[in-house]
Amino acid sequence: MLMVVDGQGGGIGKVLVQKIRAALPKADIRAIGTNSIATQAMVQAGASAGATGEGAVVWNAARARVIIGVIGVFFPYSMMGEVTPKMTEAICASAAVKIAVPMARCGILVAGVKAQLNELMDEAAAKAVEYYNSIGEKRV
User: Fold this and answer.
1) Using CA atoms, how far apart are residues 94 and 14, in angstroms rounded to an integer?
2) DSSP per residue over 49-91, as a string?
3) Which member of 19, 24, 49, 139 has the lowest number of beta carbons within 10 Å of its beta carbon?
């Protein structure tokens, strides 16, 4: 299962779901939002299922093979406080491969990142697809 995590309006997660779905039409892509607006945007973009909030992040992170989202999901209290410490702990402790899209809007600057956001999302989605294809839908 691929877990796409986003918050705020869900715009980045929506694009990631679309890109991954185009490459993996039958994959189990879970849209996990820090709020219902983000979840809804990702489900409408083609996610297999969606869930919202801290419990959803914790439960799905433990089962995911790939977790992808903006870099803020790895830092507590980012996204204007939407990301809780329990969420980041669950994501970071997960055995899943984690793919982060760097974004300065999360208040986290990554040295050396010079690409535009669209390029970063293309690369992140491609990495998720590549890894997913290498492991398949095996259960954790």
Assistant:
1) 22
2) EEEESHHHHHHHHTT-SEEEEEGGGGSTTHHHHTS-HHHHHHH
3) 139
Going by C-alpha positions, the residue among 18, 117, 100, 105 that lies closest to residue 66 is 100
CA angle at residue 50 from 49 to 56, to 5 degrees? Answer: 125
CA dihedral 21, 108, 52, 122 (to 10 degrees): 0
Q: For residue 95, which of 53, 133, 135, 39 has the smallest C-alpha distance?
A: 135
Q: By three-state DSSP, how is residue 99 classified?
A: strand
- Choose among 48, 30, 91, 76: nearest CA to 100: 91
> Distance of alpha carbon 83 from its chain centroid, rounded?
13
- DSSP class of residue 105 equals G
The Cα angle at residue 18 between residues 16 and 19, in degrees rounded to 5: 65
pTM equals 0.89
Residue 138 has pLDDT above 60, yes or no: no
Express each pLDDT in 56-93 by its tens digit. Answer: 999 999 999 999 999 999 999 999 999 999 999 999 99
